Task: structure prediction
Amino acid sequence: HDFSPIDPQSPSPLSRTHSKAYLRHLVHSGEWLGAMIASVHNLAFFLWLVKEARRHILEGDFAVWKKDMVERVQRRL
Result:
């Protein structure tokens, strides 16, 4: 079992304080809390991603950032 945080670098406190093992337990037990924590984690990630994309569009380096971000996300999946 992996007792490390879901994502220690996430802007969501839930992702930093709850472990992957706990989330897995909740999901496999059919507990709604598992779906709620996963949803908050995913929303926090997508909000961060959109803010970063906007920033890089405004800075004019979106294409370079996008290429790097796609590679980083694919490595984590």
Summary: Helices lie at 13-17, 20-28, 32-59, 62-76. The first helix runs from residue 13 to 17.
